[in-house]
Amino acid sequence: MHFNGVNLSVNYYFILAGFVVGFLVGLTGVGGGSLMTPILLIFFNVKAAVAVGTDLLYASITKSVGIFAHGKLGNIEWSIVKLLSIGSIPASIATIFFLKTIDIDSSTAISAIKFWLGVALIVTSAAVLFRNQLKQLSSKGHWISPGHIPFATVVLGLVLGGLVTLTSVGAGALGVTALIMLYPKQKITTIVGTDIAHAVPLTLIAGLGHASLGTIDYPLLGMLLIGSIPGIYLGSHMSSKVAEHWVRIALAAILIFVGIKLVLH
What we know:
Blueprint: E1 2-3, E2 6-7, H1 11-28, H2 32-42, H3 48-72, H4 78-100, H5 107-139, H6 149-167, H7 173-182, H8 188-213, H9 218-238, H10 244-263
Antiparallel strand pairs: 1-2
């Protein structure tokens, strides 16, 4: 049985992929779109647009659980979420309309999606590696005047909206790193909670946009979720027992390797 070029007889491998990615997300807070989309592209030969679209809905569902957890703990700064959304939601909708005007199955479109996905992964790897250094640098003094921070936050949302809709990457590691630099006085738990709260509506709208393009593989989405839910649970409970620093370095190395492979494809 095939759907959008995916052989559903390999469903156990999809469940395993969902588990591995979910485990890494639970362990480090990073790795959703930045790992799932490349895995679908490289290991399962899923069409580029289908990999992106399916991963976006996968992200919106998995991260929605995080909203309730962080909301109960008071880790969401809704004023920042609003500013990000002012930029990201229109950018996401505009990107979907752009994708509607082109043939997303053409070799040119596939090459463009893979190229920008590779760029996003390389930048994400840098964000994963140097997050602590950037936080220390930002805490020593604002690199941007306080009066310009709201506008800069909207611009950040604009960039994330387009990038996430096109590649499914950026809402996690890139968003958190940029917010750390813009709001160095905020606790990291608040930054992460705020980023997740913004990522859910963004990935949902982008995912629904891809659904209108016919680039969602629903059986595949179900299998990824079956694997990811226990993976996230297990990873979250092991995060305090594992040297996260080394996991981050390994994750960044994988992202750089895959990013370069996609850029130079």
